[in-house]
């Protein structure tokens, strides 16, 4: 399907599901050429008086950002001269209508300052392309990343043009299968009490943290409220399933767009400390088709490749701001290994939430 292939560390039976942790499909992220011309989404801010522009909703910068937002759904501000997260946040807010307070059901995140979150994942793990919060019934329309500490040449984030990825995927048999069958997100949330005083091997998230409660009944009720099917396993393991389309209707373009990726599959943990050694069936996340049948290794390779084909790199510098549409772009990044004294820190802003509707029948 793709002219580029992933780095597959060990081969296996392509028609079988992934089981063996030594088989790892690592993304290539892009083709070497950005999927969109950079002038369509990049604004060089060096000539702007940024203190004035970030305070002016009808200034030239705000107008240009909103034009790019409407046109492509990705806005990349470079050479802003900004160093404080709160100023970068004001720049992002020129296109972000409303911010969402980070609510339960997702990964816990620390806060840098009010409404600016940390990226909730270990740096040494590569993060497959994904749409934020595709695995729960409430997602976010847009996000923004703000560069607080840079790691030039080694700290990239990649954005994949999901309009092109959707079109390419739907031309394949795998894409048609996804369209016909939908998906199920399986998540196993561990019990904090069970791990008290123990090393957290195989832990993704405890249900207490995920739902901000110590009460198992309340956790279960909150999960059901979010459209999840729940079941208790051994050691108060909360097993949740969420059945939904692999696509999502995007009102602005009035069409269905791909809204799923292997980031919710067991292979998400291929480079995670304390989880990557586990066989796939013992990992805390898994993706199956909506009829509970398994994705094959070939399906997973195609799923990774389709986003890689339309990738765009961002090599962060302090003060850079990216605002991106969660429907029109997937985002991800390679592993980052810091040397002593190095830092790479991004702040995250989440936009307005929406209730997932899945695909609409006549909007392909
Ligand atoms: Fe993310």
Attached small molecules: fe (ii) ion
In spatial order, strands of the major sheet run 3-4-18-9-20-6-5
CATH-level-4 superfamily name:
Clavaminate synthase-like
Terminus-to-terminus distance: 21 Å
Structural class: alpha+beta
Rg (C-alpha, Å): 20 Å
The number of domains is 1
Continuous helix count: 8
Ranges where pLDDT stays below 50 over 5 or more residues in a row are none
Shape: globular
At CATH level 2, the architecture is 4-Layer Sandwich
CATH C-level name? Alpha Beta
Strand content: 25-35%
Give helix and strand order, one letter per element, not per position.
Answer: EEEHHEHEEEEEEHHEHHEEEEEHEEEEE
CATH fold name, please?
Double-stranded beta-helix
Task: Write up what this structure looks like.
The protein is of the alpha+beta class. It has a single domain (35-355), classed as 4-Layer Sandwich (Double-stranded beta-helix). It contains eight helices and 21 strands. The chain has helices at residues 50-53, 60-71, 85-93, 162-170, 173-181, 207-211, 216-225, 297-308, and strands at residues 7-8, 25-26, 42-44, 74-78, 111-113, 116-118, 127-130, 138-140, 142-149, 157-161, 183-189, 229-233, 237-244, 247-250, 255-258, 285-289, 311-314, 321-325, 329-333, 345-350, 353-355. Strand 12 (229-233) and strand 13 (237-244) form a beta hairpin. The protein starts with 6 loop residues before the first strand and ends in a 9-residue tail after the last strand.
């Amino acid at each position: 399907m793709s002219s580029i292939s992933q780095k597959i560390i060990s081969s296996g039976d392509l028609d079988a599901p992934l089981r063996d942790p030594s088989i790892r499909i690592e993304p290539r992220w892009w083709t070497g050429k950005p999927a969109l011309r950079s002038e369509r989404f990049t604004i060089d801010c060096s000539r702007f008086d940024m203190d004035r522009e970030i305070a002016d909703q009808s200034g030239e910068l705000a107008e240009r950002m909103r034009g790019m937002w409407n046109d492509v759904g990705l806005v990349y501000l470079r050479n802003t001269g900004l160093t404080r997260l709160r100023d970068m946040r004001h720049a992002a807010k020129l296109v972000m209508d409303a911010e969402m307070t980070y609510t339960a059901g997702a990964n816990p995140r620390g806060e840098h300052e009010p409404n600016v979150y940390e990226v909730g994942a270990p740096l040494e793990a590569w993060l497959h392309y994904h749409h934020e919060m595709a695995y729960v019934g409430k997602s976010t329309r847009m996000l923004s990343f703000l560069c607080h500490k840079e790691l030039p040449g080694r700290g990239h984030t990649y954005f994949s043009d999901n309009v092109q990825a959707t079109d390419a995927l739907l031309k394949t048999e795998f894409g048609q299968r996804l369209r016909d069958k939908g998906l199920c997100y399986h998540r196993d949330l561990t019990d904090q009490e069970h791990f008290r005083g123990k090393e957290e091997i195989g832990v993704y998230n405890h249900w207490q943290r995920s739902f901000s409660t110590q009460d198992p009944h309340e956790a279960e009720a909150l999960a059901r409220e979010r459209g999840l099917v729940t079941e208790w396993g051994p050691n108060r393991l909360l097993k949740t399933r969420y059945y939904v389309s692999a696509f999502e209707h995007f009102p602005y373009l009035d069409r269905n767009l791909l809204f799923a990726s292997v980031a919710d599959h067991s292979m998400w943990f291929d480079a995670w400390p304390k989880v990557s050694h586990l066989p796939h069936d013992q990992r805390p996340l898994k993706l199956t088709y909506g009829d509970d049948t398994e994705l094959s290794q070939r399906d997973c390779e195609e799923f990774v490749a389709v986003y890689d084909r339309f990738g765009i790199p961002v090599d962060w510098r302090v003060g850079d701001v990216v605002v991106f549409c969660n429907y029109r772009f997937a985002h991800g990044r390679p592993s980052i290994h810091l040397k002593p004294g190095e830092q790479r820190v991004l702040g995250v802003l989440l936009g307005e939430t929406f209730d997932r509707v899945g695909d609409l029948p006549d909007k392909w």
